[in-house]
Amino acid sequence: MNAADVAALVGVPFAAVGAAVATLAWRTSAGTRRDQADAEARRRHREMRPVLDVTSDLRFSPDTGLLSVKLLGPREVERYEWIRVEVRNDKDRVFPGTHRGYSEEEWQRQVWGPFRLRPGTDGADRGGRTATQEGRAVTDLWLFTLERSTAPSWYSGGEAAWRKDYHDAPIRLRIEIGLGEQSWVALLEAPPPARSAYEDGGLTVV
Question: Nearest Cα to 150, choosing from 179, 110, 195?
Fold first, then answer.
């Protein structure tokens, strides 16, 4: 074996190490680019989060009114594609069991709170729990009809106790707004509907 052969053999491990280092550097670079892209996507998602103003009032009667969701921004997003509003329960409620005389379906269907969405109106489902509408442009608003929730048949004290228990309680909401493959969720509590001017039997109440 001559000197050239020895040099070639000695160079093999170094070549392998060099290739491994190059591969590691490429993977690290690719990982860095992915991390940067993910960070940029998260930043853009934060910047595109809808800015909302949520109010409610009893403009129709003492028991019915409107939930208004106004889209204030951001200005760089001209229009969002859809909105889904869900009335949340007053707290987490675990089904206590069928021995109470009602089914789990009845329990889950019940809206535990002062108001629900009027079923079949403004995109609301049959239970008044959720409503879906098409998109709006910035400065526009979505309107959802509200009505007072009613006590389930098994509620202790009946309707009178239900009204008392939820007097001045906030409306707990989950609002999701979508654009393309992205969506944004806001969990919030809207104050009880204000008794703004509404007509009840010809009498305006404020």
Answer: 110
